[in-house]
Amino acid sequence: MVGGRYGKVKGFNFYLQKNERLKPFERRKLLSESEIMISKLIDEEVNRMGSIENIDSNITLLDSSHSDLELMEIWNNLYQNYGYRFDRFKEKWERDSIGKIKDFGNKKDETKSITPLKIDWLEERKKKIKLYDFG
User: Is residue 93 part of a domain?
Assistant: First the structure.
């Protein structure tokens, strides 16, 4: 198995090593870049919800005192729930969560096919995203 055996930091595509640690530059990048994205998400949620007390308590900045495994778990939860709201990861999140819609007219298209249930789910997510855009 290549990478992933010990865990993957979604979006960033960093993998924990055997010692359950990230490479030092990956840890620094995760902490610094996630701070910018999560801060923006918190600001958007506060503007939408009215106050910091009203937003999802799981939306918190990553704490450098946590282990790499804890950072990965916290980030992956944020990515799973809010990845579509991070500009950098929006397309990647959609591919990971939904897959690509197959062109059934093209026999050479090898992308994942989408079931009608996934299409319904995608439409619901797009409606939610539009609600966030209008704030």
Answer: no
Based on the domain organization, do 55 and 113 belong to the same domain? no
What pTM was estimated for this model as a whole? 0.69
**pLDDT of the residue at 40:** 93
Number of domains making up the chain: 2
Q: At what angle do helices 90-98 and 116-134 cross, to 10 degrees?
A: 150
CA neighbor of 90 nearest in space, from 11, 7, 32: 11
CB crowding 41-74: b at 16 or more within 10 Å, else e: bbebbeeeeeeeeebeeebeebeeeeebeebbeb
Residue 22: per-residue pLDDT = 95
Confidence band, pLDDT 50/70/90 cuts, at residue 67: very high
Q: What is the distance between the alpha carbons of residues 93 and 79, in angstroms, rounded to a whole number? A: 8
Which pLDDT score, from 0 to 100, does residue 1 have?
A: 37
What is the three-class DSSP state of 69?
Answer: helix
Assign 113 a pLDDT band (cuts: 50, 70, 90): low
